[in-house]
Amino acid sequence: MNPIDVKDLSFSYDQHLDVVKDVxxxxxxxxxxxxxxxxxxxxxxxxxxxxxxxxxxxxxILIDGQELNNDTVETxxxxxxxxxxxxxxxxxxxxxxxxxxxxxxxxxxxxxxMDPIIEKYASEVGMTEYLDHEPTRLSxxxxxxxxxxxxxxxxxxILILDEATSMLDPEGKEEINALVKQLHKENNxxxxxxxxxxxxxxxxxHVIVMYEGRIIRDGLPSQVMLNEQELVRLKLDAPYSVKLxxxxxxxxxxxxxxxxxxxxxxxxxxxxxxx
Length: 275
Description:
The strands form two sheets. A six-stranded mixed sheet has the order 6-7-8-3-9-10, with helices on both faces. It is globular, with a radius of gyration of 20 Å. The longest helix is centred in the middle third of the chain and has 18 residues, at about 170-185. By secondary structure, the protein is of the alpha/beta class. The chain has helices spanning about 45-50, 75, 95-105, 115-125, 140-150, 170-185, 200, 220-225, 230-235, 240-250, 260-275; strands spanning about 5-10, 20-25, 30-35, 60-65, 65, 80-85, 160, 190-195, 205-210, 215-220.
């Protein structure tokens, strides 16, 4: 049984134009899956449908085999934690500690049991020394770390990141991507990341590509993200390693590891040593 099964899902904001059109996909337990697409492709709408913020028009959404509907939405939301693109919109408390505690209060965790939980998840995201700081004074990357800590403290089975790095500078983006990769590796958590960051996609186990409301590619990043011309047609950027491999190819230098930067560097070093 998959933690997420979406079947024949359709949705429209205006009852005329479908922004999600007959979408079907599954997310395997313990996987780090990325859902990528150009702006307006419908990917963020998918996230809101999965947690019941929007109501589907057709199809079904199953979480651990349980269909999402009005009767099950509250139960299902307890299994899912979601981090949105603007962390400022998620802050409630006056301090980082208060903010992490807010979710625990909603889950009716006794106040005398909160501190160890807060300390644990602040430590997991590297924010222990900021527990008594005001969230508004943190950097973008630090704010997202706090948002993720608040979600993890509620122990969700599934973590959804909805464009969680889109408002960050390159340093903050790299910081959060590294954190997500670390959390996945250490906790074997099921992660679905809605993104347009192709470098994040290359770190994931599985990628789903959306275009104009439909899924048009679904598979391993090392297979799906190799065709630079097709990615451009889909209004997506190609990974840097793929761009570099294509430029090397124009110079007559063929590399096999075009989807893996470290592998490509090793391969180039071997070619140089042979000369």
